Amino acid sequence: MSVLFPRLLPRQAQALYDQYKSLTIEELEQQVALRHDSAVYAATGGDRVREKDLEKLRQTIVVAAREAGFPGRSTTNDRTDFDRKVAELLHRTLGLAPAEAAARDIWAFLALVVLPDISFWRFEKRTDERFLAKDLTRHVFGRLWWRAHLVHDPDGAKPYAALRILGEAAFDQIYARRRSLGGSPQLVRSILRVWHEIDTAGVNETDLLKDFLKRLLRLGAFMSFETLEDEQLAIEVRRAARDSLHAFTADRGPRHALS
């Protein structure tokens, strides 16, 4: 059964964001809470999350943040490591069903009530999209849960290992095409496995990935990826990757061959 989290509705979330966006990290730490008077829960089946579990979640994320430099400044690598840890943590421990995780209001609650100091530390550029969950692919925590959900391999020795294959910008390219590509965990995992096989030395990875995804989009117009077995899907994805590599390296010989 899914766990139900408090939801901070848009008007209240906007008010908190407007209040918090000019505060220091130290001032934001004073605003931390585990409940909010205006929070509501979904009227569906499920157990409401306990406050002691919210507190445990907060403490675990604070530890990860401190390892990445919180409350001070951090490097890009520090923030990337923080994101990977928190992505796995959120997906592994929250007990959210995808339907619940698609509710933007629960992410606004976590970002603005339970973890406002961590949220605003993570994104120094305090644009509202990172905190209000208008777009889950941009939200400080929502995007991490969904990233972990799409790459999670329950049968793998390391179910979240694929989080290390692509950086945020590259993953955003897949998720930006979520209606066609990013909505299927099976397809995303196949893309990541094949991408991990590619020798991209000497190639602009961003352009190569864009070309690779465009080929899959075109293929998806007349092929249902969801109906393919894993092995069949891997063959099609690998073929698209091979075609992209060939297009990028044709003038330099078979240096980037993909078996």
State the gist of this model:
By secondary structure, the protein is mainly α. The chain is built from 14 helices and 2 strands, in the order βααβαααααααααααα. The protein is 58% helix and 2% strand.
Structural features:
two-stranded parallel ribbon, mainly alpha, 2 strands, 259 residues, disordered C terminus
How many DSSP E strands? Answer: 2
Q: What percentage of residues falls in helices of 4 or more residues?
A: 55-70%
Number of helices: 14
The stretches of 5 or more residues where confidence is low (pLDDT under 50) are 253-257
Mean pLDDT reading? 88
Order of helices and strands: EHHEHHHHHHHHHHHH
Strand order of the largest sheet: 1-2
The dominant shape is globular
Cα-atom Rg, whole angstroms? 20 Å
Biggest sheet architecture: 2 strands, parallel
Describe this structure in words.
The chain is mostly helical and 259 residues long. 58% of the residues lie in helices and 2% in strands. The protein has a two-stranded parallel sheet with strand order 1-2. Helix 3 packs antiparallel against helix 4 and helix 13 packs across helix 14.
Note the topology.
Blueprint: E1 3-4, H1 10-20, H2 25-29, E2 47-48, H3 51-67, H4 76-93, H5 98-101, H6 104-114, H7 116-122, H8 129-132, H9 142-151, H10 168-176, H11 178-182, H12 185-197, H13 205-220, H14 230-249
Parallel strand pairs: 1-2
Helix pairs in contact: 1-6, 3-4, 4-9, 6-7, 12-14, 13-14
